[in-house]
Every structure is written in structure tokens, then in C-alpha cells.
Design a protein that fits this description.
Mean pLDDT of chain C: 86
CATH architecture of the largest domain in chain B: Orthogonal Bundle
Order of helices and strands of chain C: HHHHHHHHHHHHH
Structural class of chain C: mainly alpha
Number of domains of chain C: 1
Distance between the termini of chain C: 46 Å
Chains: A alpha+beta (about 140), B alpha+beta (about 400), C mainly alpha (about 325)
Largest sheet of chain B: 3 strands, antiparallel
Structural class of chain B: alpha+beta
Number of helices of chain B: 16
Number of helices of chain C: 13
Largest interface: A-B, 28 and 33 residues
Shape of chain B: globular
Oligomer: heterotrimer
Mean pLDDT of chain B: 85
Number of domains of chain B: 3
């Protein structure tokens, strides 16, 4: 049973089909619901137990106490492997994985992400301020 | 034409990872082959000793990009055995589902790579296009396309919803259809058969003697599969055939892999039908009691072996990994004999090598003096700079040039 | 004089060939991609590649013969461009023609292959030397069938001039249908000449890196690639002129469109061929050429020999 050019029919029908390629930078890829992307830190929820620091395989998280029951988190994204173990470890759900995956940077220092503590810890757990260090120097860093 | 030595690697288009094969040729015929390992050594075993079990699990998962679930499951099994943890059945089933999905993606990847090595890029493009279906499924189930991170000590991190299980069955139907087509192509396309059959012959006796594992061994009629011989996770509940072949060549290895793909689809259907309800994880202690365990796992490339020794702390005392490629590399030299230069890429590719999993550190003994030398990082750096300076390469000038360009 | 220069350099000479060949490379690559269910490159990709390569540094290996290394791409380019002038394109008459130009064209098309061999040999790198020997081995396999396949129609037309041949088939279009075997043989041989799958053995990247061109970079590589692109167009034009001699009565513009369509069809067939097949080994290729392709060409030769005897009697 020999058939030279067996794939000929398949390839010819491909001419009339849409290419399977996703034109990535122009067409964004939708990540699945449970995708493990960039980690988000919600400062008011943090109790400073530092379990995440202990379990992080690459030691990319640093939690610092900046005031009374106020904590800020520092992520070295160049070391993070996006395993989201910290999300599982956190007893208070202060950490969560987002669907953000476009994290490549040309400048090394932009890979350091600091989630500052809210000025008043009692206020609503709204979106925390997120800054790269050069735009606003880290407190205590 | 006199004998010539051809370097295949450390950098070569046929190899996706650095590894050095020196091939002695007479005309186009291979006389002998010499392998040099170690270009990819990363010191993972040692690094595991400095991390707690949770951290080490993620590290072990990154031994290999393709069979990441194999390594992490194999490691976790050993740890759970030492700790005496009873993993819930649902977790076992989820681990098995991911393991079989991983096998599907690995074998489809191999099919494409094999096509590329023999200049059949169309097969590469189609096989990899269809592989996307598995990758997307894996991403949806576990949260990532590679390095799934589904395992945790004492179970799995994520449950699979009923909708996802239903979607899984649909994906299996699509992939089964496609795999049937590839079997047709492999058994009918004349140029493909010509390039694969009779190439890389490994007799049954040689396969046994050289300790070949996985599809490489099974294509030489070695009926060996850990999933059946020493069932782990949920394999004891499954009904499946171990595919063997008597071609003893690359063509046989192709048939074994596509045959295994068909088995995988059936196994996943059984798993989806049988999956029990219940919790997916049990609480695991941070400190694992002293003890040692040996764990075996049938990775897509063959038998993967992990040894873990615990000493009662939260860190392992010793972790030893034997990746399947290391077992298969010996047989590559045998397969090369009396083949042609044109067959080198496909013979190497036919064991589905993963060099980064395999590489181990080799300490150089000075045979003449019995002297051992270990260089510190700083000393190695200075040595390297000196060596290059002697070759006439001045890094100062290069660095200056580079930094000027970066500024521009 | 000015007109001759215009013919040589602009139309249908170098500039036209340059644009046409790169456009055909785009068609080939795009088609290859679409057949593989990919998107493929944008239309300017071959031009961009050429410009980028031209801007890169030329590196001549220390041990290589620098003169031969630099000369070979120019030789290859010159040979294929020259061959183009003797092939009838949109009219039955080529730009230049004389009795026996068919042989000259076939020989001019052999020169690039020889330059590949010399270039590889003088690079003195292991991979390029293996590539060079493979180039030469392969040349002996496909060249004879190609000669026979192209000489068979000439035998029927009883002339050694391409232009006269085209005139003959233009008058007797039915005879062109007899050359089908020759057409297929010529397509296969052209695929071998262009060193593309399944005959890309001399530059099989997974085996011998870049083969003949391993050591080439920058402008010299750009020239080689341009020469191969032009060779594809010239080869396709030759096959079109010999085996598809239709549609010459439509004037200059109509004839040009028909010519482009013919070349496109041949390029598409070659692209399809390289999509559905795997690369052969060198000895499989030689066996295939001598056991299948050469006898087929011989059969065509025999048919035309008998026919021309019948016709003339």
C-alpha cells in the first residue's frame, strides 16, 4: 500500500482554509480562566505571616512591614516562575494570579514590581498602587 | 575518501539542545560515534537538597520542559511514600489524566520533530498544529501549557470540573481522528517509509543488553512498560495494551509512538468515565520523616526513576534522578553503526532525546597524578579570561565597544 | 547600443529578472506556507531578506580560497541571467537566438551547480565539502534525464534552436501533448537542480548545517540566493517554452500575462512537490533518478524518435 504524496489532498484543502496561525501581537490570545500569570498582591489582606516567602521556589517575594499591620510586597519578576504556589500558600488570599502574561521587559529594573501598602489600612480593599521602583522609590528598600 | 570526523553539536541545527556527537565517517557511511554529555548540566539534584519539598517539587518539574509532569509526579510519589500519605483517589485520577495528556503532546511533538529531521516539514506543521489542541486543554486544566504545576504533596492543586471532563472527551475524538490520519500517512507515504525503515537498527538482544527504555525498547520487541508492570497512580484501574513492534528500526519507533497515542485516547476516556468523587488533596506535613524511597514512572520517553532520601527536616538529604534519555543514549551508538550521515539526525531524534534531563556533572580526575581539582567560580572566571586573552581576544575592548553601541 | 543595454540591464534583463525572481520566491514561500496551513511571509519578504543580507558583513574563512570564494556567487548569477536571454517568453522568438542555443541554455543552467560545488569545496569547511560532493553526485543523477527530456521535443521539432522549436509547436500545438512524460521528468529534474525537497540533500540543514553555503554570509550569500531564485525562474521559463508552447498569438501584453501564468503554474507544481514529500537520502535519490526518471526520459526520447521518423517519411 504505497501512496506517494499521501498528504497532497490534505495540503490542497488547506489552501481554502483559514491559516491555523494566530497573528499574535495583533490578535491577542485569551488565556484560560485558571491561568497562572503575574501575581497580584492586596496589601490590606496581608497579615505578614511570610509563608509565601518561605514556599516560593525562587525566593522572588519580599514582604516588608512598613507600619502598624501594613505590609508591602516586592516581586522580582525575572525570578518568578509563575507557579502560583504563593497563592495556594497564602492563608488570607492576599495574593492572586492574574491572566497577565506579557511581562517581557527591555530594562531590567522594570522587572521589580512593588505593591505599596495603602495609607489607611482600614479603608476598602481597593486596587493597590503598583509602581515600578524608578517612578517612585520604594519605602524602606 | 579517508575517514573524516564530523562534529554534530554542541551547536547543530538537528539538535534542539547542546550535546556533542563526534561521528567518524567513511564517505557517507558512519564508522563510529562518540557522545559527550554535560553541556546542559544545571546541578538540579544538588539544588534540591537546599530547598524544602514544596520548592524542590517545582524545581524537579523543570528538569524537562516536555515531560515536566513525569518528573514532578515521580518525585512526589517518592516523598509521599516516605511520609506515608494516602493520596485521595480523585487526585490519583487527575494526575493520570494529566500524565496521559502529557504523553499525547510529547508523542505528537516527536512526530513533528521526526518529520523535520527527514526534511518533511509539512508533517511538522500539521502535527504541531494538532498538538495545540492538547496544549490548550492542558492550559485550561492546569493553568499553564508547560510546567503544569498540578501536583502538590498529598494530592493535586486543582480539581477538574465536569464541563472540563466533557470537553476533554471532545478533544480526544478530534485527536483520534487526526492520529488515524497520521498512521495512514506513516504507512503509505513512500518517501517517509524509505527514510525511516531499516534506519537505526537495534536488535532485540542489544536493546535488552544496553538497557533501552520506553518506545525505543518497545520498538525492538522488549515488552516492558512500568504502567502495566508496576502500576502507579491510577493505572491499575485502566485497561490498555502495551504497544510493541518488531521492526527494530526508526519506523518501528514511529509506529509504537502513534500506537501509544491511540491507547492514550482510550485511557483518557476510561479515566473520565471512572473518576471518583472526593477531595483532591490531604494535608501534608512540612517536615518529612526520615526514610528513603525509590519511585518509577513511565514517562513518554521511557522509564523515569527518582530516589529521595529524607532526614526528618523539611529538606531532602539526597535526590537522584535518572531520566530516560540517559538509559537510551547507550543504544544510540549501536544504532548508528553502518548507517549513513543523512540518518544521524533521525536516529538521534528517534530516541526522543532530552539532553537537559540527562546531563550530569563529570568531575575530571587527572589520571597521571591522581590529583583532583575543583575550581571556585571566581577562579574559573579568571581562568576563562586568561585563556581568551592568550587567544588574542581582549574583553576590555569588546566591552567598551558594546557599551558604546548600547548607548547609541 | 542603448537598446541592447536596456535589454541587458533593465527589460527583460537583470532588473526585470531580479524583481520577477524575488516575486516568484514570494509566491513559492507563500504557497508553501498556505499548503501547510500557515500564514506565510508578506509580499516584500524576499526583498527584505535580500536587502538585509546585503547589508551584513562578508566573512571569508581564513583557510578558504578567497578569490574563488568571492567569485563563485557572481559566476552563478551571470550564468543564469545569460541563459534567460535565449528562452522565448512572450513571443515565439527569444531576445537572442541561434541554431544550437538549446544546448547553450542547458549548459548555462549547469554552471550554477558547478559553482555551488566549487564554492563549497573552496570554503574548506567539513560541512560545505560534504555538501559540495553531494551537489556533484546529485548533478550526475538529474542532469542526464533533464537533457533527454528537453532534447526529445527538440527531436520532434527537428531543430536545436529554442525559438525555432517554439515556432514549430506554435504551428502544431497537438504535438506538444505528446511530451507529457518529458514535462514530468523535467519538473522532477528541475526540483533536483534547485536543490529543494525531496532533493535538498546538498543543503539538508538537519544533517550538514548549510551544506555548500555553510560558510557564506552577507552579500555573497545574497548573490547566491538571488542566483538560485533566478535559476528557478529561468528553469521554469525553459520548461514553459519547451513543454507549454501556447498562447503566443495574443500580442506583447497578452503574451506576457500568459507567460507569467505558465511560470506561476510551474512554480506552484514545484512548491506542491516539496510540500508533500520527505527528503531522500543521496543514494536513494541517485537510484530513483537512474531507475525511474532516466528510463521515463528515455521512453519519451524513443516515442519522439519514432514519431519524427513517421512524420518525416
Amino acid at each position: 500500500m504505497i501512496h506517494p504524496g499521501k498528504m497532497a489532498r490534505e495540503v490542497l484543502t488547506s489552501l481554502f482554509r483559514k491559516p491555523a496561525t494566530v497573528l499574535y501581537p495583533y490578535v491577542k490570545v485569551q488565556m484560560p480562566d485558571r491561568f497562572r500569570g503575574k501575581i497580584k498582591f492586596t496589601s490590606p489582606l496581608c497579615i505578614g505571616c511570610k509563608l509565601c516567602m518561605r514556599d516560593c521556589p525562587t525566593n522572588c517575594i519580599t514582604i516588608t512591614k512598613v507600619g502598624d499591620k501594613q505590609f508591602q510586597a516586592e516581586f522580582d519578576l525575572d525570578r518568578c516562575i509563575y507557579c502560583a504556589q504563593c497563592v495556594d500558600t497564602c492563608p488570607k488570599k492576599a495574593l492572586e494570579a492574574t491572566a497577565e502574561y506579557e511581562l517581557a521587559q527591555l530594562q531590567h529594573d522594570k522587572l521589580k514590581v512593588i505593591f505599596h501598602a495603602e495609607p489607611t489600612p482600614a479603608s476598602s480593599p481597593a486596587a493597590p498602587a503598583e509602581h515600578a521602583p524608578q517612578s517612585q522609590p520604594a519605602i524602606g528598600a | 575518501m579517508a575517514n573524516v570526523k564530523i562534529p554534530i553539536g554542541p551547536q547543530h541545527p538537528a539538535l534542539k539542545e547542546p550535546e556533542s556527537f563526534t561521528i567518524t565517517l567513511n564517505g557517507e557511511t558512519i564508522i563510529s560515534m562518540d557522545v559527550r554529555l554535560g553541556y546542559n548540566h544545571r546541578g538540579i539534584e544538588k539544588a534540591c537538597e537546599e530547598r524544602n519539598y514544596i520548592q524542590a517539587m517545582y524545581l524537579v518539574e523543570r528538569v524537562c520542559g516536555i515531560c515536566s509532569h513525569s518528573h514532578s509526579t515521580c518525585f512526589i510519589q517518592a516523598v509521599e511514600e516516605i511520609a506515608g500519605l494516602a493520596v485521595p483517589p480523585r487526585a490519583q485520577y487527575i494526575r493520570t489524566i494529566i500524565a496521559e495528556l502529557e504523553r499525547i503532546h510529547s508523542h505528537l511533538l516527536w512526530l513533528g520533530v521526526a518529520g523535520h529531521e527527514i526534511g518533511f516539514d509539512t508533517l511538522l506543521m500539521y502535527a504541531w498544529r494538532d498538538r495545540e489542541a492538547v496544549m490548550d486543554t492542558l492550559a485550561a486544566l492546569t493553568g499553564n501549557r508547560v510546567n503544569y504545576g498540578i501536583n502538590t504533596i498529598g494530592g493535586v492543586r486543582r480539581d477538574i470540573s465536569p464541563e472540563q471532563l466533557a470537553g476533554l472527551l471532545k478533544t480526544m475524538d478530534v485527536l483520534e481522528e487526526r492520529t488515524k490520519y497520521y498512521i495512514e500517512v506513516a504507512s503509505q507515504e513512500i518517501t517517509l517509509i524509505k527514510r525511516l525503515s531499516g534506519v537505526g537498527y537495534l536488535a532485540h538482544e542489544d536493546a535488552v543488553k544496553l538497557g533501552a527504555v520506553g518506545p525505543t525498547a518497545r520498538a525492538s520487541a522488549v515488552d516492558r512498560d512500568i504502567r502495566r508492570d508496576d502500576p502507579y497512580i491510577a493505572y491499575k484501574d485502566l485497561d490498555f495494551k502495551v504497544i510493541t513492534d518488531t521492526h527494530n528500526d526508526v519506523y518501528g519507533r514511529t509506529l509504537v509512538r502513534v500506537g501509544e497515542l491511540m491507547q492514550c485516547y482510550n485511557m483518557i476516556r476510561q479515566l473520565v468515565a471512572k473518576i471518583p468523587d472526593g477531595p483532591v488533596t490531604v494535608k501534608a506535613p512540612r517536615k518529612i520523616p526520615a526514610g528513603e524511597a525509590f519511585s518509577r514512572y513511565e514517562a513518554p520517553r521511557g522509564e523515569d526513576v527518582h530516589y529521595v532520601k529524607a532526614n526528618g527536616t523539611d529538606k531532602a538529604e539526597r535526590v537522584k534522578i535518572r531520566a530516560p534519555t540517559l538509559a537510551n543514549l547507550q543504544s544510540v551508538a549501536k544504532m548508528m553503526e553502518n548507517n549513513r550521515l543523512a540518518d544521524v539526525p533521525i536516529i538521534i531524534a528517534a530516541i526522543d532525546p532530552c539532553f537537559s534531563c540527562t546531563d550530569r556533572m563529570v568531575r575530571i580526575h587527572d589520571a597521571g597524578h591522581g590529583r583532583q581539582e575543583t575550581l571556585s567560580w571566581q577562579a574559573l572566571h579568571t581562568y576563562s579570561l586568561d585563556w581568551h586573552r592568550k587567544q588574542g581576544i581582549d574583553f576590555k575592548a569588546l566591552n567598551a565597544k558594546l557599551s558604546r553601541r548600547m548607548k547609541l | 547600443m542603448a537598446l541592447a543595454l536596456f535589454h541587458l540591464l533593465i527589460f527583460p534583463g537583470f532588473l526585470f529578472l531580479f524583481v520577477f525572481a524575488l516575486a516568484m520566491e514570494f509566491v513559492d514561500r507563500k504557497l508553501y506556507a498556505r499548503l501547510q496551513n500557515r500564514v506565510g511571509p508578506p509580499w516584500f519578504q524576499p526583498f527584505a531578506d535580500f536587502i538585509k543580507l546585503s547589508a551584513k558583513e562578508d566573512i571569508v574563512p581564513e583557510k578558504a580560497d578567497a578569490i574563488m570564494f568571492r567569485l563563485m556567487p557572481v559566476f552563478a548569477l551571470a550564468a543564469v541571467v545569460t541563459a534567460f536571454f535565449y528562452i522565448p517568453m512572450w513571443g515565439p522568438q527569444a531576445l537572442f537566438s541561434f541554431s544550437g542555443d538549446l544546448i547553450v541554455v542547458i549548459y548555462l543552467l549547469t554552471i550554477p551547480t558547478l559553482t555551488f560545488f566549487l564554492a563549497g569545496w573552496h570554503s574548506t569547511s567539513l560541512f560545505s565539502m560534504i555538501g559540495a560532493t553531494r551537489t556533484l553526485t546529485q548533478l550526475f543523477a538529474y542532469e542526464v534525464p533533464l537533457f533527454m527530456a528537453i532534447l526529445a521535443p527538440a527531436l520532434l521539432a527537428n531543430t536545436w534552436s529554442l525559438s525555432a522549436m517554439t515556432v514549430f509547436y506554435d504551428q502544431h500545438p497537438a504535438y506538444a501533448g505528446l511530451n507529457v512524460i518529458g514535462f514530468i521528468v523535467a519538473l522532477i529534474a528541475l526540483q533536483g537542480k534547485l536543490e529543494r525537497v525531496p532533493f535538498d540533500i546538498p543543503e539538508a540543514e538537519t544533517e550538514i548545517v548549510g551544506g555548500t553555503f555553510t560558510e557564506y554570509s552577507g552579500r555573497l550569500l545574497a548573490l547566491f540566493r538571488l542566483a538560485i531564485d533566478i535559476e528557478a525562474v529561468v528553469g521554469a521559463s525553459l520548461i514553459a517554452a519547451v513543454f507549454l508552447p501556447f498562447g503566443f498569438g495574443l500580442g506583447a501584453a497578452g503574451g506576457f500575462v500568459i507567460y507569467v501564468v505558465k511560470v506561476l503554474i510551474i512554480i506552484a507544481l514545484l512548491a506542491l512537490l516539496r510540500t508533500v514529500l520527505a527528503r531522500l537520502r543521496i543514494e536513494q535519490m541517485v537510484i530513483f533518478c537512474w531507475k525511474v526518471v532516466a528510463p521515463a526520459a528515455l521512453l519519451q526520447l524513443l516515442i519522439n524518435l519514432i514519431l519524427s521518423g513517421v512524420l518525416r517519411s
